[in-house]
Specification:
The structure is a single chain. The chain is mostly helical. The chain is built from five helices and no strands. α1 crosses α3 and α2 packs across α3.
Amino acid sequence: AGRNAKLMVRVFRLRKGLTQQELAEKANVSQSMISGLESGRLNITYDKLKRIADVLGVASVDQLMQQTGDS
C-alpha cells in the first residue's frame, strides 16, 4: 500500500469517530500499527489493510488508496 492509503486510513477513521486504539481493537491489529500506518512509517499486509477497511466501512481497499483530495 502506498502513502495515499496511509493518509486515507486517518481520514476514514476520523469520519467514523474512532481513536487509533478503537480502530486497532476492532481490526485486531496493534495501536502502534495504526499509528505507524497513518504516519507513513509502516508498510502493512493486504490482509490487515482489508480488515481495517472493513472496520471503517470502506467497500474496498482500493478506496483507501484514493488521493486524499478526492471526494
